[in-house]
Amino acid sequence: MRDAAPPPNVRPLVLIAIGGGGASHGTHPEIDAFCLRHLPPAPVLGYVGTASGDDPGKSARVRAAFAPHEMRELPMSADATAAARWAEGLDMIHVGGGDPVRLLDHLRATGIDRVLVGAARRGVVLAGVSAGAMTPHASTEPDRIAAMAAHVAAGDLPAGWAIDDGAALVMSDGAPAGVFPADGPPRVHRIARDHAGGAAAAVLTL
After folding, report:
1. Domain ranges (residues) in the chain
2. For residue 142, what pLDDT is reported?
3. Residue 2 has what pLDDT?
4. By three-state DSSP, how is residue 128 classified?
5. 3-state secondary structure of 47
6. Residue (of 81, 180, 78) closest to 127 by Cα position
7. How much of the chain, in percent, has pLDDT values that exceed 90?
8. pLDDT band at residue 49 using 50, 70 and 90 as cut-offs
9. Before 181, cis peptide (omega within 30)?
10. CA dist., res. 100 & res. 81, Å (int)
């Protein structure tokens, strides 16, 4: 029996993980342009600044970086119901960096994590930088890379990714679909167990 054809007009689930830089950092503007290339013309954007405690400076930089496109911010005071209304009609949600523990705790406690998952499943691109992508910076945090590799080797963590500042990884329906820049450095690194039972980092090329 042949597999059923996918429903028409189904958009893939796209995630863009950024190691560091871009809109909220005020550096690497090419990262912002790369994100916009995955969106329709005149996109409507959303920004989550929870990891930085809704830092007004980061918020201002994000708005400036993505101007003149419409930008909607989700305040930390929002609950899941308000977040669901906020997410309607968005083309991309940009999750800024800061404290990853604060971000995860808040999203889970409010139920906004489920709102973000639902948005992604509707075809909204989710982009995160640093803590917003839950990825260590390979170029500036080598100790974290070593610690991650040790945990992967021990089986405490699954294989994962580490991303240099100024680099980004695109995942489409759970599989790597692109890296930026295509011919780095900066680069995207895959950390996985090796045949000797340890773990090693390898540069991802697509």
Report:
1. 14-134, 137-163+182-206
2. 81
3. 45
4. strand
5. strand
6. 180
7. 77
8. very high
9. yes
10. 23
Per the DSSP assignment, residues forming a β-bridge with 46 are 72, 93
d(CA 130, CA 135): 6
Diameter of the chain measured on Cα atoms: 57
Q: What is the pLDDT of residue 3?
A: 45
d(CA 45, CA 62): 10
What does the alpha-carbon distance between residue 70 and residue 81 come to, in Å, rounded to a whole number? 21
90 touches 123 (CB < 8 A): no
Whose structure tokens read 């916009």? 36
How much is the pLDDT for 96? 96
Q: What is the dihedral of CA 1, 122, 110, 158, to 10 degrees?
A: 50
* Residue 177 contacts residue 171 (beta carbons within 8 Å): yes
Of 129, 169, 161, 121, whose CA–CA distance to 144 is shortest?
Answer: 161
The C-alpha R_g of the chain, in whole angstroms, comes to 17
Residue 130 has pLDDT above 60, yes or no: yes
Is 3.40.50.880 the CATH number for 14-134?
A: yes
Answer yes or no: is pLDDT of 4 > 60.
no
- Distance, in Å, from the CA atom of 99 to the CA atom of 173, rounded to the nearest integer, reads 27
